[in-house]
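From the shared-data thread, chain only:
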Amino acid sequence: MQALVIAAHGSHLNPGAARPTYAHADTVRDTGAFDEVREAFWKEEPHFREVIRTLESDEVYVVPLFISEGYFTEQVIPRELRLSEWDPDRWDSEGTDADWATLEAEGKTIHYCGPVGTHDAMTDVIVRRAESVTDDPDVGKGVGLAVVGHGTERNENSAKAVEYHADRIRNRGRFDEVEALFMDEEPEVDDVTDYFESDDVVVVPLFVADGYHTQEDIPEDMGLTEDYREGWEVPAEVEEHRIWYAGAVGTEALMAEVILERAADAGADIENAIDRVKRATAEMADADDRGSRAEAGD
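Structure, as tokens:
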């Protein structure tokens, strides 16, 4: 038997913080790829510390639903899971290329994976997010893309993940312009229009869940609204640009694929589950697009 644990931060203050975790777990569960699928959190129940002992499976794949490598993925989660032999060097990573480490805990074999945010498959999720917010599966020509992260001097890896995916998307040549912007370091998202010549700019925050950063700080900082409580238009006119603000990338349904990719890289037997998730999320996107056109009377 094999089990999947999706390890996320959660929140005591934001009841919606765990919603993407449960949604992606349900998507993976529906594929039948794992005998057991569990959600575990740092700030909510069920807690990291207890999750392993609730499983019957001997093989456990732990995938952190975090954006970057750092304090939580390298210290908190391994400690709470009681991975006594863990050492960050097992990932042999420079900040964006963590893979997995196989250890023992609670009498089980634990395959501890790198965070979803640095996996190559996350690049496709960012692009899908841009497609979703614009209702355009071919979005790119004549459009700029801003990938936005928190950024912090306390963890250089926070910026590395954002820059990594921005570089990968830029190299594809799909969008006219691609920039990595940040909340707490330069270049700042406050000045988003300064970095683009394109009239249309899609802004995708590289965050797992929508919270006060993505729903309050960033919209106000970019000038989408003076008061987040009043909402904002999509697209919104800001200094002669149309800003298509997508909200947190982690809420995109295709994130379930990245979770599966992480587990598969570590040796999980998932058969064709990834292809099924791709098809299912593409159908969901098409249905949302048809619904949007119907509401608009097209």
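The domain at 2-118+253-284 is CATH 3.40.50.1400 (Rossmann fold).
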